[in-house]
Design goal:
The complex is a heterodimer.
Chain A lengths: L9 H5 L6 H14 L5 H19 L3 E4 L1 H12 L18 E3 L4 E5 H5 L9 E9 L13 H20 L6 E8 L2 E11 L1 H5 L7 E9 L32 H11 L1 H14 L3 H14 L13 H11 L17 H14 L7 E3 L15 E3 L4 E2 L6 H18 L7 H6 L5 H4 L2 E6 H7 L6 H19 L3 E7 L6 E2 L12 E8 L8 E6 L3 H11 L4 E4 L5 E6 L9 H13 L2 H6 L1 E3 L18 H15 L8 E6 L22 E7 L9 H22 L4 E7 L10 E7 L4 E8 L2 H11 L15 H34 L3 H14 L8 H13 L10 H14 L7 E3 L11 H17 L10 E3 L15 H26 L2 H4 L9 E5 L1 H4 L4 H7 L1 H9 L10 H13 L3 E5 L6 E6 L17 E6 L2 E6 L1 H12 L3 E6 L2
Parallel strand pairs in A: 4-7, 8-9, 20-23, 24-25
Antiparallel strand pairs in A: 1-2, 3-4, 5-6, 5-13, 6-7, 9-10, 11-14, 11-18, 12-14, 15-17, 16-17, 19-20, 21-22, 22-23, 26-28, 26-31, 27-28, 29-30
Chain B lengths: L4 H10 L4 E2 L2 E8 L9 E9 L12 E5 L7 H9 L8 E6 L7 H18 L16 H11 L26 E6 L2 H17 L14 H10 L4 H29 L22 H18 L6 H31 L9
Antiparallel strand pairs in B: 1-2, 2-3, 3-4, 4-6, 5-6
Helix pairs in contact in B: 3-7
The chains are: A alpha+beta, B alpha+beta.
Chain lengths: 1089, 341
């Protein structure tokens, strides 16, 4: 589509055709990036194509020879092996092998059609060499005869190229498999190593030589999917009872259809303008999801995408009408094709395009999209599991494209979505060798697929609705030397199974089977489950076959227990024992281990109780409007389980608001004093009401400014052995503070006291921010997080892991809880390109991947908490946050105040949590750490096995200095220690009915003191409660010497600089000061650099 | 306390300037600690105090910059009383970043006093003292301290309890040190010059209340004061506050409709019922706005519809332009997201 000249058509433009302006513009750029370009490597490769063509045309014919002679000849004279596919020609084969000049040599595939996306480092060009029909007999379609002849022909080609390039040694030859199909070996030609690794390593290309056959050589009715073409010797004549061999048949058929499909795609791109662009979009989409034509990568790649689309442009709709229209835009084609993949279940009902009607074979679950014109199932390389995965991906993308508030371009095309640890909730590895031996199969390519089919069937049945998708990944094949025969399987590799959970079912403990009366079903159930099946009577009187699982006896998840059980039952114990679950070890990093939100229940209960008790207080001068939570420990989101014994968890903030009253004074300081009076009253009344449950104590805060909240009431509830910190919300504060800010324009209202200075105004602005944060935003955010935690069981462990990660990297003082909760929530409410994660490890890995990817300098974070479709953020709301973000960037372009901008549907002010912290340099450090972690997950995650500790430790070498604190002070269980050390304190605490335990963290106070004292001269890092290290960096902006000013903000020393003396930061004296301030808490100050 | 030779040589060898931007440099040696066993030097900068508006204290004062964070009035007093620094006597120290604790109470007391005066005699044409702009902060705080004398509440009554037994300064902060007389001030400055020149060693002792864990424990204790202390503090503050309120109402009532010296009558609402509270004033304003909104709603006039449509069309064009610009900007900044490999 061209850009419209007039803007009048703007609404059409943004409508169905291209989703939105931005989407379309981004798509244009993507297509430009990916479109075919005739560059240096293309020129070089085309030169080679010409050379190869002339070489092949000059290869001399070879006389028919018996198989043994032919093989010996090639080995002797050319050192070339013949890559016969398994099982290889029988020793008593009657047919002869022969080579004669090809009838045609042609370039096909995406390169010929110019629909290859330039992405990826390598340029692959398919060169088909048509074998003359004279080499074949009518019956060669049977028993691998065609494939054996083809293999010999290929070896002769390899020998010919090798001989002719002997002199200059220009090419390197390898055997490979066409799309990983062991029946179709190919020769790969690459330029020799010098230029490959040398200066023009960028110009990498390879040419794949594919021997094919004339379309007319074999009768198409013999290779229909329901026919058998491999006859066991003894029963060579009994055709009827043999099982069909669809894969073999289609492989043979595909060798005859190369030019047919070239024509089909060419015609489609001629008749439909957007066809090529839609192909490129598809190829990018598939690539990001790890799909390709390789059998091992799903068997659905660029060719299948293009061919499906071309077929759907001619049929596939109702009454044989085209499903797609050639008038569609590229985006419409792309989306409609995904919708086709999502909606139509090709495994249940075959889709036929053209006249020929076939039905899908009943017992196997292979998808069928039958091209009646060329008589082939174009999805023959797909397996049931890869089809299931493709469907799931298509579904996720179609759903995300339907959303209007967020531009889903990035998740659709940009983000790499194929990493198994990020994509699946659970990964299981099985060694190939054990898998084959346990299913008593040969060690060849076909048996691994057979074993996987059985595995898939067993797991599907065993896990039923606990999972939405079972994906099986078999090892990739690798090219091998032309001197060697087909190498077959690498037995040291693993088969990987990826499970996507259905969160609502995945941890169900009881499975119901058929009733005892249904004899047949019950028998099948027993047959499948063996001794695990038991007959039970349930409450409603029904007697059912059932299975009971439990997490009490083992620490393994129920899904893992089931997988192990069914593998042991249907394969054997060896395989069940050799099975490894990858990635979920990271959950062990969650403190106190509990990965369920149940541990938060006592705290939540105590809160409800407190609310009821406060509401029932009768002698309060004002009526209670509400008591709301404003703390992560009341939204299932805190790192530590609140109130867990002995671990000193911080008090949970709660906010009490009374019904509006005009009796509040018109003065900020007086309001604060009144609030203290209220708090004292609430405390007295609570203790009076239930002295055994509550003990209260009033505390002071914000002593530096009297217009900030001055006091809180710590309420210790014996119900959860936890402490609540109650503050009073008075909405008069907001209007009073705003009026201070507004008085510049208007005359102060009578009675507001003296003139207002700039510093008053600054203080009021700060106080207003604090007011909005503590009394409006935090309660709203807490409520939203609590809803998320109830909706997504994996949220709680994910956010706790994430908090652990931030504190392990000493980032705790810079990233407020709320910000980290937003990061985690994003993973759940906007999971694109994946579906919502259901395991802690997946949630965690994805969030880390997001943090590594997020360019906070350029884009705001917008999190939508809403679950229901109608309460989701509208695009207008998103737009508004975008505008706020842009306004912030305009007034603070160097990001001194707000580096990260994080808005949500609960708190639309994106600077609420990030005003002042994290600083730009700290945010940059987070990105660097997240990138390192994401890289480790990607590289080591699956193969080597990931040590979770690795992700949670960072070297102290990166810092300028480190303060090592006395562990006896910082230890979480410090209550006893302190008492022993300071007897008088203990007595004082006892007198007040209170202990210091939990409510104070001297290291935290020390850190805050340092931050107050040194401002932005140093950046300090601390791991939060329990951490005994404070690390620091000097602010590089302050390291240069400069003229002495009155407010430098750091201790300085004079230095001679030319005539004039200047000063610079006195780092040693600062460290000595820190040591003095910390006193006995600081064990050692270490200089790292 | 004359420094050993070695230290002097060190100072000379490093050729530290003895003057910086008109300040005399006074090196203070920080004794090594077990956690940081390195002898370090802190530098204090001194000059005679020279505010824009001098007062009688100015000649007796020095302006000091870059205090150690654990400096207090008390340990500075001790520092200057040492022989090596001329044995001068300090009258007071006014720190720059004095926190404004107790300020509200002071303001309230000032107001109370003024209102009480006013309620006795007729209103004097002059308003309250205006704060002079552009004046160094140390001046302000000095004045505030003066103003807090002679109130009818006790010195700290009505103030919230302090939560730190020892305040810590910001790094690099400054203060005005007022000596008992000019001679002492001069002597201190002279001694500092001598020390800097000769590289003598003066050891800094950050004496005072304990630092370290003890300070935080004390803080914890102090910020949880006993109930009765708080209750009485709050009570006396609120009593003073309501006294101010009632005086204000009284005066306003009395002045209602009474012309001032120039013959003008201040128009104010609520002469009979007292000064309107802010809450009520706001409510009235809201109600008024609501009424206007209702009277001329959307789509009342035809031109409104027309304008609305025009606006919508313009919006579409603008949106498209905006989007294009945004993508253009992404491209130009070279930070466009490339397809992940």
């Amino acid at each position: 589509m061209k850009k419209p000249k007039t803007y009048g058509s703007g609404d059409i433009y943004t409508g169905e055709m291209f989703k939105s302006n931005v989407f379309k513009l981004q798509m244009d750029e993507l297509l430009e990036d990916c479109a075919f370009k005739h560059g240096k490597r293309e020129k070089e490769a085309e030169g080679v194509l010409h050379t190869l063509k002339s070489i092949i045309e000059k290869i001399p014919d070879r006389e028919p020879l018996s198989i043994g002679d032919a093989e010996r000849n090639l080995a002797k004279f050319s050192k070339i092996a013949v890559p016969f596919p398994n099982p290889g020609p029988p020793s008593d084969a009657q047919y002869k092998l022969q080579y004669s000049r090809p009838s045609n040599i042609n370039v096909v595939g995406s390169y010929a059609l110019k629909v290859a996306s330039r992405l990826g480092s390598e340029l692959v060009i398919d060169l088909v060499v048509k074998m003359p029909a004279s080499l074949f007999q009518e019956k060669d379609y049977m028993n691998h005869r065609y494939f054996n002849k083809r293999a010999y022909y290929l070896a002769c080609l390899a020998a010919g190229i090798k001989n002719s390039s002997l002199k200059d040694g220009k090419f390197i030859l390898h055997y490979d498999l066409l799309n990983g199909n062991y029946l179709q070996p190919t020769v790969i030609v690459q330029s020799s190593s010098e230029s490959q690794n040398g200066h023009n390593a960028k110009a990498r290309w390879k040419i794949q030589i594919i021997p094919v056959v004339e379309d007319s050589v074999f009768a198409t009715n013999k290779t229909m999917p329901d026919k058998n073409c491999i006859r066991p010797k003894a029963t060579a004549n009994e055709v009827t009872s043999l099982p069909p061999t669809p894969f073999y048949n289609a492989s043979l058929r595909s060798d005859s259809c190369f030019s047919g499909y070239l024509r089909l795609l060419h015609d489609a791109s001629k008749s439909c303008d957007s066809f090529k662009d839609a192909c490129i979009l598809g190829s990018v989409w598939l690539r990001q999801r790890g799909f390709s034509s390789e059998i091992q990568s799903g068997g659905f790649g660029n060719f299948e995408w293009a061919a499906t689309m071309a077929l759907l442009l001619t049929g596939g709709g109702p009454k044989g009408k085209p499903r797609l229209s050639s008038g569609y835009s590229s985006y419409q084609l792309f989306k409609a094709q995904l919708q086709f993949l999502e909606e139509v279940t090709l495994t249940k009902k075959a889709v036929n395009i053209g006249q020929e009607i076939i039905s899908a074979p009943k017992d196997n679950q292979d998808p069928v999209l039958f091209d009646g014109e060329r008589m082939m199932n174009i999805l023959f390389k797909m397996s049931p599991w890869s089809y299931e995965l493709l469907k799931q991906e298509a579904e996720a993308t179609v759903a995300s494209l339907g959303e209007s508030a967020f531009d889903q371009f990035e998740s659709t095309f940009i983000t790499r979505a194929d990493h198994p640890l990020l994509r699946q909730d659970c990964l299981i590895q099985l060694p190939v060798q054990t898998l084959l031996s346990s299913s008593r199969l040969d060690r060849d390519e076909e048996s691994i697929m057979l074993a996987c089919r059985k595995l898939f069937r067993v797991l599907k049945r065993g896990l039923s609705d606990r999972v939405s998708c079972v994906a099986v990944f078999v090892p990739q094949t690798k090219p091998w030397d032309v001197k060697k025969k087909m190498t077959g399987l690498d037995l040291s590799e693993n088969v990987t199974i990826g499970l996507t959970y259905r969160p609502e079912n995945s941890s169900r403990t009881v499975d119901h089977g058929p009733t005892a009366e249904e004899k047949k079903e019950a028998a099948a159930f027993r047959q499948f489950w063996g001794e695990k099946a038991e007959l039970r009577r349930f409450k409603d009187g029904s007697i059912l076959e059932s299975l009971v699982w439990s997490t009490k006896e083992s620490n393994k998840s129920i899904v893992e227990q089931i997988v192990r059980y069914v593998i042991a039952r249907h394969f054997n114990d060896d395989l069940s024992e050799a099975m490894v679950v990858v990635g979920d070890q990271v959950s062990s990093m969650i403190p106190s281990g509990a990965s369920t939100s149940g541990a938060f229940q006592p705290m939540m209960g105590a809160f409800t109780e407190l609310e009821q008790d406060i509401r029932s207080l009768e002698d309060l001068p004002l009526t209670v409007r509400e008591l709301v939570a404003a703390s992560p420990s009341l939204s299932y989101s805190s790192l530590d389980i609140p109130g867990s014994s002995r671990s000193g968890t911080p008090p949970a903030d709660v906010v009490l608001q009374f019904e509006g009253s005009s009796r509040w004074p018109d003065d900020l300081a007086a309001i604060q004093r009144t609030k203290i009076a209220f708090l004292l009253r609430v405390g007295d009344l609570l203790e009076e009401m239930n002295a055994s449950r509550y003990s209260c104590q009033l505390g002071l805060e914000n002593s530096h400014s009297e217009i900030l909240n001055q006091a809180f009431l710590d309420i210790r509830s014996s119900s959860a052995s936890a402490t609540f910190r109650l503050r009073i919300h008075c909405d008069r504060e907001q209007s009073l503070l705003s009026s201070v800010l507004d008085t510049k324009a208007a005359k102060p209202l009578p009675g507001t006291g003296p003139q207002i200075t700039q510093s008053d105004r600054d203080a009021a602005a700060a106080a207003l921010r604090a007011y909005k944060r503590d009394f409006l935003s935090r309660p709203a955010h807490t409520a939203a997080c609590r809803a998320i935690a109830t909706r997504f069981p994996a949220y709680t462990p994910t956010v706790r892991l994430l908090k652990k990660w931030f504190s392990s990297h000493l980032l705790a003082p810079h990233f407020p809880d709320e910000l980290i909760e937003l990061f985690a929530t994003l993973t759940f409410t906007r999971p694109e390109p994946w579906t919502t994660p259901s395991s802690p490890s997946t949630g965690f890995f994805r969030t880390i991947a997001f943090l590594a990817r997020w360019d906070w300098r350029q884009e705001p974070l917008v999190v939508d908490f809403a679950g229901e479709e109608d309460s989701k953020m509208t695009s207008a709301e998103v737009k508004e946050t975008m505008m706020k973000y842009e306004a912030w960037r305009r007034i603070d372009p160097s990001m001194n105040r707000v580096a990260m901008f994080a808005a949500s549907s609960a708190v639309s002010d994106g600077a609420m949590w990030t005003d002042g912290r994290p600083a730009r340099v700290v945010a940059g450090r987070m990105t660097a750490l997240a990138r390192a972690a994401a890289a480790a997950i990607k590289e080591k995650g699956v193969e080597v096995g990931l040590h979770p500790e690795m992700l949670f430790s960072s070297a102290l070498q990166d810092y300028d200095f480190v303060l090592r604190l006395d562990p006896s002070v910082t230890r979480k269980e410090k209550g006893d220690k302190l008492k022993a050390k300071f007897k008088n304190l203990e007595l004082a605490a006892e007198g007040a009915g209170f202990s210091m335990k939990g409510s104070v963290d001297p290291a935290q106070s020390f850190l805050e003191g340092l931050q107050y004292t040194y401002g932005d001269a140093v950046v300090l890092f601390y791991g939060g409660r329990g951490s005994s290290v404070i690390a620091g960096l000097w602010n590089p902006a302050h390291l240069e010497s400069r003229k002495l000013k009155v407010r430098m903000g750091y201790s300085s020393l004079p230095v001679a600089k030319g005539e004039e003396a200047e000063v610079k930061m006195n780092r040693d004296a600062i460290l000595a000061e820190m040591a003095r301030l910390g006193g006995d808490m600081v064990k050692k100050v270490e200089l790292m650099k | 306390m004359v420094a050993p030779k070695k230290a002097r040589q060190d100072a000379l060898a490093s050729k530290l300037p003895i003057q910086v931007s008109g300040y005399t440099v006074l090196p203070l040696t920080l004794p090594p600690l077990s956690s940081f066993p390195k002898k370090t030097t802190h530098y204090l900068y001194l000059r005679p105090h020279a505010p824009k508006v001098p007062d009688e204290e100015t000649p007796k004062s020095l302006f000091l910059v870059n205090f150690p964070i654990d400096a207090t009035e008390d340990n500075l007093r001790k520092l200057f009383s040492r022989e090596v620094l001329g044995g001068s006597r300090v009258k007071s120290v006014i720190f720059e970043d004095l926190r404004d604790a107790g300020n509200a109470r002071k303001k309230l007391m000032n107001e109370l006093r003024e209102l009480e005066e006013e309620s006795l005699g007729p209103k004097k044409g002059q308003g309250k003292k205006r704060k002079r702009r552009g004046q160094p902060e140390e001046e302000d705080s000095a004045r505030q301290q003066d103003g807090s004398e002679g109130l009818n509440l006790g010195d700290t009554e009505g103030e919230l309890p302090t939560v730190w037994d020892r305040e810590i300064l910001r790094s690099g902060s400054s203060a005005v040190v007022v000596f008992v007389d000019k001679i002492s001030a001069d002597a201190a400055l002279k001694a500092a010059r001598r020390i800097a020149k000769k590289g003598e060693e003066v050891i800094w002792r950050g004496e005072g209340e304990a630092l370290g864990l003890r300070r935080y424990q004390n803080h914890h204790e102090l910020s949880h004061p006993p109930k009765h202390t708080l209750q009485s503090s709050v009570n006396s503050y609120l009593a003073a506050f309501s006294r101010v309120e009632s005086l204000r109402t009284q005066i306003a009532k009395r002045n209602f409709g009474v012309p001032d010296e120039d013959g003008f009558v201040t128009v104010s609402k609520g002469g009979r019922s007292g000064v309107a509270s802010m809450a009520r004033a706001e409510k009235t304003k809201e109600r008024h706005e609501e009424r206007t909104e209702k009277r001329v709603g959307d789509g009342f006039y035809r031109f409104q519809l027309r304008e609305e449509r025009k606006k919508r069309e313009g919006e579409l064009v603008r949106k498209f332009e905006e989007d294009r610009e945004r993508v253009e900007k992404m491209r130009k900044s070279g930070k466009r997201r490339k397809v992940e490999m």
